[in-house]
Design goal:
alpha/beta, seven-stranded parallel β-sheet, seven-stranded mixed β-sheet, 27 helices, 36 strands, binds adenosine-5'-diphosphate, binds zinc ion
């Protein structure tokens, strides 16, 4: 080699790479397959420079060049001695970013399966799988290490470069060559990195927060109104200190604490946040600390797990029925990998899971407990924490990214949490020795990721992850999906049924109110039927509670002109706008656009516009108008945007501060209250009439889950179900809790019309801002595909909402039969997409696939 091996600066590496091109390719080189967070179909191959050879493992992140100047952080997904084809120019890896893998072999295989099956790229899987802090999306950015102080032995060039870096901001590596006339910037960056004077900023938007947090608080001696006022007066001569103190007072909500002479009431304020938000410096804070006004202290902060928590209760004693279910689960899992636990609401499935979890942990294996939406599972989290204490870790999409990174790193360490509770993204966490996956509420549609790709179904992906890891799976539900129940019936999965409620609690009684008939008899002046009105009155009178379910947020789904029938629509989407009373706006539920409420019809000028239908806001209004003693809590997307709002609503209702809970499908999930006299389903019709082959199944699941919330300690709860379609067999099935009846009817229809589980669906979506191109491209694609799939190909069709965000949408539906090869089908689809991208007219049309739409 021309350049010395010791020249390990980036510049040296680049120079060596240039030199290598002239030399015959050395045979002993190692090459790495690097996955980049880009929508590329294949990982790229890079050479591992000799000096990194020992340090590199599959699952580590590396810094690589791409194009002329770009640098990316990629993930090593394979290592090989095999040299790539001679005509390929292979470049060198610049550096290794992790000393130990952030991912294990199984995860890489899992990602590959997801990309293959759900028809997306590995880069897209990587983007979904990794928390932002590990992802290094875009180009690598570096910044000053705030902890680096000793600048004494830096060379003058290093010092110059360091000075070029802004104080708190990061800078793209590729931007450096253009600044300050420093031509040999890479060697400087590298050596500064080695000295830890600079660091790679791990992600672009949010600050990385370490587990140890530095916080600041008001000195206890100043926690009195006079003392604080005096201090603020003294600080008049030091305005920067005064302003910092004032900011602190605001952030810590200190006035309340000071008024009460209670330092314990001061809210915790992080130093970094305080300085950031007030644009102050450490010096000013130090000055205030020096004066004894503020104190800086450190706290260990982690909301990921319950490390400090000891289990407070032992494992539950099982009822005979639960014990039998557990025994049957053992048997089923002895010769199968998957078992469905069908247990009616409140049968105590959680208690059975806890036993299985405990047994798995005792074998030294890990458990993943998946729930559809973690934000809605506070009660479950607390139940698990009581039993498993510090062994429980939680992977919560609502947590700051830095905490997710922390949990991720912990799972890679030698001391991972053995039990993880999480939503679908927890599937991507690294597990060392996964023994069991519990998929709770396996029927729930939230297990599907709709946007962006990978559009995966976490329940199904869990089965694959388990197979790759040699783990068992328990799917649990009171209302299993028709597909899972079919697999259980046909023997592919084990099947265990738990048919009685724990503690002899009776199932709620469901009465049907025929709204069509009541309206005909003019007995529905409001959204409440006479029976529901009466039950609500009784409940409030007796100091009991009620839950009202309406799966629509907002005040009313549409507004209509009383004279000409005009209805306002979104300008960018083909949907009517929803009326939101609390802010007096019209809202598009598809793109979020807001519009002013019109005072008159733009078409005919008529000023009488009335709202049609009703959402949760209108229900709230109706309750407040009808019952003076009602204390209403409303739970829908609009009232739970803040992270803590959901928990607060649950707390208020549990504590009896509120006596009526109104909500969308959020109220159906995992809640357990004991003073609910009546549950009102205000309209079952929307769910029943949904234009989807799963509509009846979903309606059954939804109504049954809501109904399960009714019941007081020791007494049968009541459910009033309002519908226009009281005669439908489905309504009888819901009333009688006849899951088997619903299943038999649905599975027969699925077989007859060939829908899952008798086939698998793939939807090809075609999207463009011009309708003619969208339609033309979808027709062109369909004609290209039809010879391959014949009558299994349906469409192209205009979906229910044919335009969203100003993009027109068409879809082609493909039914893949069981005997067809998964890979072959996908290859045809990919080729068709490729062909379209070469089409003169349609090449800019966006095409993507949705496998197993839910
Ligand atoms: P499911 O998840 O099947 O709807 P849960 O597991 O939430 O039912 O159980 C319903 C209620 O019954 C919970 O309050 C739970 O604590 C209680 N419960 C169930 N099984 C037991 C048991 N073996 N010991 C004590 N309490 C139980
Ligand atoms: Zn009009
Ligand atoms: Zn819109």
């Amino acid at each position: 080699m021309v350049f010395t091996k010791n020249d390990n600066t980036l510049f040296g590496l680049c120079a060596r790479w240039v030199a290598r091109k002239a030399l015959p390719s050395p045979s002993v080189d190692t090459y790495a397959k690097i996955l980049l967070p880009l929508a590329l179909t294949q990982p790229y191959t890079y050479r591992v420079p000799d000096r990194l050879a020992g340090a590199l493992q599959v699952g580590c992140r590396v810094l690589v060049p791409l194009g002329v100047r770009k640098r990316y952080a990629g993930l090593v997904v394979g290592l090989t001695d095999e040299a790539p084809a001679a005509h390929l120019k292979v470049r060198d890896i610049i550096d290794v970013l992790d000393s130990r893998p952030v991912l294990f072999d199984e995860q890489v295989k899992f990602w590959q399966w997801i990309a293959f099956y759900y028809m997306c790229t590995m880069g897209e899987v990587m983007k979904t799988a990794l928390p932002a802090g590990l992802k290094l999306e875009g180009e690598v950015r570096i910044r000053k290490n705030p902890g680096f102080i000793d600048e004494s032995d830096l060379t003058s060039d290093e010092q110059r470069l360091l000075n070029l870096l802004p104080d708190r901001k990061a800078m793209r590596l590729s931007d450096f060559p253009e600044i300050g006339g420093i031509t040999t910037v890479f060697p400087l960056v590298k050596s500064l990195m080695e000295r830890r004077a600079i660091e790679v900023e791990e992600h672009l938007t949010r600050a990385f927060r370490p587990a140890i947090m530095r916080c600041v608080r008001l000195s206890a001696s100043l926690c009195a109104p006079e003392a604080l006022t005096a201090t603020l007066n003294i600080l008049k001569r030091a305005p920067k200190q005064q302003s910092l103190l004032l900011s602190y007072v605001g952030m810590a909500d200190a006035m309340t604490a000071v008024a009460a002479h209670n330092p314990a009431a001061l809210k915790e304020v992080e130093v970094a946040r305080l300085l950031d938000e007030t644009d102050s410096s450490h010096t000013i804070l130090k000055a205030l600390a020096g004066r004894g006004v503020l104190e800086v202290y450190t706290v260990e902060k982690s909301r990921l797990g319950f490390d400090a928590q000891q289990p407070t209760v032992g494992l539950p004693d099982l009822s005979p029925a639960q014990q039998q279910a557990l025994d049957e689960l053992h048997q089923a899992l002895a010769d199968r990998d998957i078992c469905l636990l069908h247990g009616i609401t409140s049968s105590g499935k959680t208690e059975v899971y806890q036993r299985l979890i405990d047994e798995t942990l005792a074998r030294g294996e890990q458990v993943l407990f998946l729930v559809p939406e973690i934000a809605l599972t506070t009660q479950l989290m607390q139940r698990l924490a009581k039993v498993f204490g510090g062994r429980l870790g939680v992977y919560h999409s609502g947590f700051p990214d830095s905490e997710r990174v922390e949990l991720w790193r912990r799972q890679c360490s030698d001391n991972p949490y053995p039990l993880i509770l999480g939503a679908r993204s927890a599937l991507f966490l690294p597990f060392r020795k996964l023994g069991l996956i519990v998929v709770d509420e396996e029927h729930d549609a939230s297990y599907k990721q709709q946007e962006p790709a990978p559009r995966y179904v976490a329940r199904d992906a869990a089965l694959v992850l388990a197979r790759l890891s040699g783990a068992k799976v328990v799917l649990g539900s009171a209302t299993p999906s028709v597909e899972s129940y079919h697999h259980a019936r046909s023997g592919k999965y084990g099947l265990v049924e738990l048919r009685e409620r724990y503690g002899g609690k009776a199932l709620p009684k469901i009465v049907v109110e025929d709204v069509a008939d009541l309206k005909y008899r003019r007995m529905m002046p409001s959204v409440f039927s006479p029976r529901l009105l009466d039950e609500l009155k009784q409940a409030l009178h007796n100091g009991e509670q009620a839950i009202l379910f309406q799966n629509r947020r907002g005040y009313a789904p549409t507004l209509q002109c009383n004279r000409c029938g005009w209805t306002p629509h979104c300008e960018r989407c083909d949907v009517p706008l929803t009326v939101h009373q609390h802010n007096g706006l019209l809202l598009c539920h598809y793109c979020g656009a807001t519009y002013q409420m019109p005072v008159a019809c733009p078409k005919c000028g008529h000023t009488e516009l009335r709202d049609r239908g009703f959402g949760t806001e209108k229900v709230e209004e109706a309750v407040v108008n009808s019952f003076a003693e009602a204390r209403v809590a409303r739970m829908d997307l609009d009232t739970t945007r803040k992270r803590t709002a959901y928990d607060e609503i649950i707390r208020q209702f549990s504590a009896g501060e509120k006596n009526v809970l109104i909500g969308t499908q959020m109220v159906t999930k995992g809640l357990d209250f004991d003073k609910v006299r009546v549950v009102g389903i205000l309209s079952a019709d929307q769910a029943i009439n949904a234009p989807d082959f799963r509509a009846y199944e979903r309606a059954f699941q939804l109504m049954t889950q809501v109904a399960g919330r009714a019941g007081r300690k020791g007494e049968q709860g009541l459910v009033v179900l309002q519908t226009h379609q009281a005669k439908l067999p489905l309504i009888r099935q819901i009333v009688e809790n006849d899951y088997a009846g619903m299943y038999e009817e649905q599975i027969a229809e699925r077989e007859q019309y060939v829908y899952p589980p008798y086939c698998r669906l793939i939807v090809v979506y075609v999207r463009h801002s011009r309708e003619d191109l969208c339609v033309g491209a979808s027709n062109w694609l369909a004609e290209l595909l039809r010879p391959h799939f014949g009558t299994q190909l349906l469409g192209p069709d205009r979906p229910l909402v044919g335009r969203v965000h100003s993009l027109y949408i068409r879809k082609i539906l493909l039914k893949v039969l069981p005997q067809q090869q998964t890979a072959a089908v996908r290859q045809v689809l990919w080729m068709a997409r490729k062909a379209l991208s070469g089409h003169a007219l349609y090449k800019r049309v966006d095409v993507f696939f949705d496998v197993d739409p839910q």
